[in-house]
Write a structure and sequence with these properties.
Radius of gyration: 15 Å
Shape: globular
Number of helices: 2
Number of strands: 4
Oligomer: single chain
Strand content: 25-35%
Length: 107
């Protein structure tokens, strides 16, 4: 039984971070999510440990609510936030961000 002073339970996520990353890349590339696979795309595990990323952001964290992990994948800067957002930014030849798209794990 829960009392009014108990902290709320974290919301359940319908997608895991690695899936949200793939979905965001697919959206940016204008391809179906099932197309983001070899040989056209490098496996995600070549740049980040997918299991560790999913475990890290399994539930929203009250301890570190602004946690994030960033990495480069397929020419994009990818940032996974503890609140469920996944930002994908294309980089120009000079390394500056040209375009950004975000996805949420709850989508």
């Amino acid at each position: 039984m829960s009392s009014a002073s108990d902290p709320p339970s974290p919301p359940e996520r319908t997608s895991v971070p690695t899936q949200a990353v793939i979905e965001a890349i697919a959206a940016r590339e204008g391809v179906d999510v099932t197309d983001v696979e070899p040989p056209a795309y490098e496996p995600l595990y070549t740049v980040v440990d997918p299991a560790a990323l999913d475990r890290l952001f399994r539930t929203p964290s009250a301890i570190c609510p602004d946690a994030r992990v960033s990495f480069e994948y397929e020419g994009y800067d990818v940032v996974v936030h503890s609140d469920g957002r996944v930002d994908v930014s294309e980089r120009s030849a000079t390394g500056e961000t040209e375009f950004s798209i975000g996805r949420s794990l709850e989508e």
